[in-house]
Amino acid sequence: MQIAVVGTEEFVTGFRLAGIRKVYAVAPDKLVETIVKVMDEEDVGILALYTKDLEKLPPQLRTKMMESVDPVVIPVGLDEGDMRDKVRRAMGIDLYKSR
Prior knowledge:
The chain is 42% helix and 22% strand. α1 links the parallel β1 and β2.
């Protein structure tokens, strides 16, 4: 499984430098089209995108993405939300849960 990143050139540059191979730098008008394409790729296990870009998507696509487990969608940005929930969704277990 691979990690994919979709967003502006400015957003994806750091991921590219970190060695992520599936990096899609897109203009705002191509964002939805690219996300739909990447979500259908069988080898993508995690899809990262900027939180603000996620908020701009149509509600139906945004809901589909946030409920997706293959790939797991990870919003990245200033307001990242609850990391515990993201880890639980990505791995299927709650690493923080005490016995």
